[in-house]
Design a protein that fits this description.
The protein is an alpha/beta fold. β13 and β14 form a beta hairpin. The longest helix has 19 residues. It is elongated and about 55 Å long. The two termini are 18 Å apart.
Length: 166
């Protein structure tokens, strides 16, 4: 029996850094730390923000990813298995426990639900909503909303709704 991944409760273990050379996890850590200090009232927070911005630049170059320090909302448990070529606009909202593979582009205004898997080369090029537990196929080009639990494949993507179990 497979364990179900939550679309509402973040699994922070997915982002846990187990060894120093974990570029994608280090990139996420630098973003989360920067945002933590940004909302802090600590008197010397600017020093820590600059340090995290420097780390962010380093890990962005190493990973080849473009994820802004002020990305609007990134839910916990985000996994970037191979983040090279990943481009995420700062106004994107990403739910908890999502998976984003390499060469994915997500434009302004996209809302991604919880536990969404976005496979290699997918492009979300319109301001759409992707429902919880949805799957975006490799190289799919998303132009319309993707309902909860659905799979989107192709160019332009067609939606495959989940079958109802009896």
């Amino acid at each position: 029996m497979s364990q179900s991944i939550s679309a509402t409760e973040a699994d922070w273990q997915r982002e846990k850094i187990e060894k120093w050379w974990s570029p994608s996890k280090q990139l996420l850590k630098s973003i989360r730390e920067y945002q933590k200090w940004q909302s802090s009232n600590f008197p010397f927070k600017a020093i820590f923000m600059k340090w995290n911005a420097l780390q962010h630049r380093f890990w962005s170059v190493i990973t080849g990813a473009e994820i802004h320090l002020n990305t609007k909302k990134m839910g916990g448990g985000l996994v970037l298995t191979h983040p090279n070529g990943v481009i995420i606009h700062p106004d994107v909202e990403i739910g908890v426990n999502c998976l984003i593979l390499q060469q994915v582009t997500i434009v302004k205004g996209v809302k991604i639900g919880g536990h969404v898997d976005i496979h290699a080369g997918a492009k979300v090029i319109r301001s759409v909503t992707i429902g919880d537990h949805a799957k975006i196929g490799a190289n799919a080009v998303i132009l319309t909303d993707v309902p909860e639990g659905a799979t989107a494949v192709g160019v332009p993507a067609r939606i495959i709704l989940p079958t109802k179990e009896k």
